[in-house]
Amino acid sequence: MLMQANDQNLVALANNGDGEAFGQLVSRHYDRIYNVAFRILGRKSDAEDLTQDVCANLATKMQSFRGDAKFTTWLYRLTTNAALDRLRARASRAKAADGWGAFEVASRQADREQQQELEWLQTAMAQLDPDLRATVALVVSEEMTHAAAGAVLGVSEGTISWRMSKVKEALRDIAKQEEQI
Amino acid sequence: MDDDLKRLKAALSTATPDPDGDAKARAIALAQKNFAKNQGSTSGLRPSHNRPENPAGFLTGVKNMFANFGLRSALLATSSLAVVGLGVMIILPDSGLTPDLGLGTEGRLQDERRKDVDGVVVTTEVVEEAELMLAEPLIEADVSGEQPVVPLAKLSVAEGQQGLASMPVKPSPDDQARLRDMDNERFANEVANPLSITIEDPVSTFSIDVDTASYAFVRTSIMNGFLPPADAVRIEEMVNYFPYDYAPPQPNEAPFSTAVNVFQTPWNPDTKLVHIGIQGEKPAVDDRPPLDLVFLIDTSGSMQDANKLPLLKQSFRLLLSNLRPEDRVAMVTYAGSSGVVLEPTSAENRSEIMAALDRLEAGGSTAGQAGLQQAYAIAERMNGEDRVGRILLATDGDFNVGISDPEALKSYIEDKRDSGTYLSVLGFGRGNYNDALMQALAQNGNGTASYIDTLSEAQKVLVDQVSGALFPIANDVKIQVEFNPAEIAEYRLIGYETRILAREDFNNDAVDAGDIGAGHSVTAIYEVTPVGSPAISSDPLRYQTAENVADSSGEAGFLKLRYKEPDAAVSQLISTPFTLEGTSPSQEAAFAAAIAGFGQLLRDGKYLGNWGFGDAIELAVANKGDDPFGYRAEAVSIMRLAESLSR
To answer: For chain A, which domains are there?
Structure first.
């Protein structure tokens, strides 16, 4: 029964007071929120804090979700906004190199090759400003179209395309520097 | 997608750690709790912001809430909070009824209160929620135009029950184990030692413990406004935190003195405390052997908090100022990849060492094992005639790269211990603190585990008691006490739960035990119930009597100690009988008893009767003694704080 329900039905049930539907909705999307948060923030503890914050406020925020967008789009917006706010707050407090600069390499079994990739990633993410990181999290990791990512971040499709070209440029720069060494 | 982006996608996917199951469960429970709250009031009465404007404050509140639960109950609560919404749903239709769950509505959640009511796991929290819900009017009101209309709970009883039936209400044992494993702060402890009946089990054996980490941890908890989780309290570490002025050993005898002091138990007029005080000799500070110190420093990202790496740097600066020119220091960091940041350097070159210390920055993950291997390699290289080698591992607790198996790490350290390099652990910070691993490392590395929460604690551990922390005088010190059933009916060792040894291990020199450093004092306390005392809790046996085994020596027990001289493989034995003679405790013993009582109050006060924090404070104040460093005065203020918190 409820197991097969789509987001839309669960949202309707939850907004109707159905706690079980709401619980399913949160469990179903927790990992998604966390992944996006981590890719923007670069630190597990921050990502977990933020995800908890988003979850804690979801019940209240959902009352203003009108169903005119996909639930996931709306949830991505909620998450990226919160993550970007946090990143900016942090940047104003500490030096900008924070976050992905102090990024935790997660995989315990990382072999040498993986380790190199992770170092490369760290260098790359440290060079991207918060908006570019959010764009990468959505377009690259979540494989969203530029139009959909634009809808989440509240900018036009063109802006996303332009940001992606900046990301590629940054990656090319790093490759060049690596060659020089 | 072009190649760079593909590479980026793959790397991002590898880099993202799996979400922590516990954090997830907590977040979902919180979401559902807030959801249930929202259903309880009309949204018109409580418009969209039902949280403080400051999100940081909100998060902190949530964190404190969980911190306050204590570990085990937090886990129980996460599972039970998940059913809050449902519990409410069921109760709503019968709004005239107050749920009779047999629970009070107030009381600390620290108590592990749970009851099964129709299969629902409930804690006090649930009851409060439920009553709150009942108290609020169930008006189906239209709300302000800006807010979307949110229909209120309109569930029938049947729907509620359906919901309940399809929801896993009780966490399975597997779930609980998983949650426990994933909790971020981990403590090593065992259940409190039970009362032993002398005639059945006359021998008690344990290893000494000179660690102090538990006291510092308890102090930080209380200073932050909550009582520590019971598992964080190791009573012997609290007692041994304080220096005691026991009589020093005579020259040319054993490297430590042993004294037994028997007096009436402060919390029970019908029992006695057997207080065993051990005092290590203090080698003259001037002729101590030169030291080779390897600082192994965790510089992972989590160490950047002010109470971690910055405090660590300050602490090591304190230590440096107390080293001699002939001492040497090396520094290894571990984070992402481990590396030697300072080759062995004579303590004369202070500026060089300071500069290396200043360059340390937090960032990256924790390649603990690689770091440890490097540190041992350097220590072995530095090893020389008549020098003492020690690794000082400073961390907030996690070795998340390289090893996943603490057992493998332990055996590695055990192997290395025999090479003559000691390992001590300095713990920093909260949140991640892995007390269990720190304990295991220090115990297996023949070192001590200390928890550094303030600069003054660093002063105590690294300066005031540096000789004890760095220079061992006796290794593998074990204590065995045989009680005489003709004199003592029951006994109980206070603390040392994690240090209990099997009876036969006492004489087995291969079994590792704790070490005593120069000037260390170690205290162990038994509570004993003399034969004929009204406090005896177990009835006499019908078919066996104490007279069968009695002797008339009048001795209450026989104390045996085994220890090894540093670098010796064969142990030596000291033994002494003791009687129940003696009435008033020495000031030092009475203070130790006050702390032991305090520790039991924090853990499990079932043997204390009506004796409370007030009595512990009174006893401690009366026996504060000289207290040159102010440790005891501080303890009294901690006890006062705990008293207020416990109300």
So the answer is: 2-180 (1.10.1740.10)
Q: Which of B14, B38, B150 sits opposite A114 (nearest CB)?
A: B14
Answer whether CATH 2.60.40.10 is correct for domain B290-454: no
Each as own residue / partner, the long-range contacts of residues B617-625 (CB below 8 Å, 24 or more positions apart, any chain) are: B617/B643, B619/B266, B619/B590, B619/B591, B619/B593, B619/B594, B620/B591, B620/B594, B620/B595, B622/B590, B623/B587, B623/B588, B623/B590, B623/B591, B623/B594, B624/B591, B625/B245, B625/B587, B625/B588, B625/B591
Contact B5 A167 (CB under 8 A): yes
CATH architecture group of domain B196-283+473-646: Sandwich (2.60)
pTM of the model: 0.50
Could you tell me where in chain B the CATH 3.40.50.410 domains are found? 290-454
Contact B7 A117 (CB under 8 A): yes
Say what the pLDDT of residue B7 is.
87
Do B124 and B103 form a contact (C-beta atoms < 8 A)?
A: yes
The answer to whether B173 and B468 are in contact (CB under 8 A) is no
Say if the Cβ atoms of B14 and A108 lie within 8 Å: no
Q: What is the pLDDT of residues B341-387, one digit of tens each?
A: 888 888 888 888 888 888 887 765 556 677 888 888 888 888 777 77
Average pLDDT over residues B187-214: 85
Q: By the CB < 8 Å criterion, does A96 face chain B? A: no
What pLDDT digit, counting tens, does each position of A80-98 carry? 999 988 887 776 555 444 4
Please say whether the beta carbons of B66 and B90 come within 8 A: no
Q: What is the nearest CA distance from A82 to chain B, expressed in angstroms?
A: 10
> Which residues of chain B form CATH 2.60.40.1230?
196-283+473-646
Q: Of the candidates B12, B19, B35, which has its C-beta nearest A22's C-beta?
A: B35
CA nearest A94: which of B324, B126, B614, B362?
A: B362
